[in-house]
Amino acid sequence: xxxxxxxxxxxxxxxxxxxxxxxxxxxxxxxxxxxxxxxxxxxxxxxxxxxxxxxxxxxxxxxxxxxxxxxxxxxxxxxxxxxxxxxxxxxxxxxxxxxxxxxxxxxxxxxxxxxxxxxxxxxxxxxxxxxxxxxxxxxxxxxxxxxxxxxxxxxxxxxxxxxxxxxxxxxxxxxxxxxxxxxxxxxxxxxxxxxxxxxxxxxxxxxxxxxxxxxxxxxxxxxxxxxxxxxxxxxxxxxxxxxxxxxxxxxxxxxxxxxxxxxxxxxxxxxxxxxxxxxxxxx
Amino acid sequence: xxxxxxxxxxxxxxxxxxxxxxxxxxxxxxxxxxxxxxxxxxxxxxxxxxxxxxxxxxxxxxxxxxxxxxxxxxxxxxxxxxxxxxxxxxxxxxxxxxxxxxxxxxxxxxxxxxxxxxxxxxxxxxxxxxxxxxxxxxxxxxxxxxxxxxxxxxxxxxxxxxxxxxxxxxxxxxxxxxxxxxxxxxxxxxxxxxxxxxxxxxxxxxxxxxxxxxxxxxxxxxxxxxxxxxxxxxxxxxxxxxxxxxxxxxxxxxxxxxxxxxxxxxxxxxxxxxxxxxxxxxx
Lengths: 283, 283
Prior knowledge:
Two copies of one chain form a homodimer.
Chain A: E1 8-11, E2 14-17, E3 22-24, H1 28-32, E4 35-43, E5 46-47, H2 50-63, H3 72-86, E6 90-98, E7 113-119, H4 125-130, E8 132-138, H5 152-156, H6 158-164, E9 168-173, E10 176-177, E11 184-188, E12 194-197, H7 205-215, E13 220-223, H8 227-231, E14 235-240, E15 244-251, E16 254-255, H9 263-282
Parallel strand pairs in A: 8-9, 8-15, 12-13
Antiparallel strand pairs in A: 1-2, 1-7, 4-5, 4-6, 6-7, 9-10, 11-12, 11-14, 14-15, 15-16
């Protein structure tokens, strides 16, 4: 993030060069890892599905007792200013809200709001065409409905991913799967139903859009998905803002379906790309 | 923390005024709540039980794959410099190690090390003499053996504590208790045994010292402690660096023993204070 010194960021009321974007060490994110965030794409100068992201940002803030210092209109004005100043073709905008400068390092103070825009790296063509391999780990995020900044477990598992040559890790509890650290899970059962875990997951905006697209063509079920369901699925894929629809061809030692990305994932990816383009053009 | 502008802090290799102690927003603590810390007392210019705290700091760092940039000798030199510059009578020193300035906001970079010294507030005489009331909550920290900066759950429960007039919250899983967000739990059973949870807890330095003091006088057991054990105990108390030995006289709706702090807790507190004084004098 420090290698892009020409970008601007918003820090606690001010737009300034990203290289000058600092928080005092008394901030509750540094002291206690306390904060929430959200992250949306900006394509050709237009935020994509912004109202969904703003509303989830407010929901996370509420779940963590953090008042958002700006109205939606004020947030949108800051977002527009950063987009204009930074002039990036394809980017991600991160909004972070921390517990603020805490006098005793534990109690919530006036939250600090950051907006950071960065060039965006989409999954490689290779990952998209070959699919990725994931492993599984028994874990559930503390407050699954909130997009907190706490990625302790996900980041700690990075070493294991590298050692095992896996691209990501799927969380489960006693065999009931939930989500990836930064993505949702969808599967296509042998009978063609598109299924996704209903509970203990972050309600992804891409998940929502992909489910809506899937409903036009396939039976769709939100409910309990087990590891066994995943292993036996015809197709498995993840959805996220940056990954869009990314096929998964192996979970632990189990090859999924034919071991190649499937038609459902491919079709949904293309429709999502079209939907995003339409949304970006419509703003 | 910002109200003490004359203090000095150590930030990534530099000793500077605390008011100028900032981290860039790309730090993994801000981006992903990723970091560890430790915290020890300084009495009359002497760190108390420093080697225990340094070794736990290194253990937490190792569990989170964060290399500590300084040797123990170098850390001790920084600690001495801060103690000398800040000249506080009674204080706490916090060492924080974050995931560093991450280029992609997710992968661990070169860790950032902070040392922050602050005046210390011990429990009020009232809390010590009357004992405190606590509630319980089903939760377990993600990596109990590591002192990570993640206090999402503890801080989020603050509002509930205030509403219920409780001073702290005891974590349990299906009735098996573990710890408080920042303290360990000890109980005295009706038969006089001093018991404390053995697993899924942070191994407190004060816990260790108090258990050693208790072993001289009482049978001591580290093992499984249930909520029922706590409710039925003769005495309940918490131990921590700042709390030392703090009596608990009510857990949820259950009054403990006579509803007054007990002799075992009082005796151990006095012996701990003496041990700390001896340790501070011996350095």
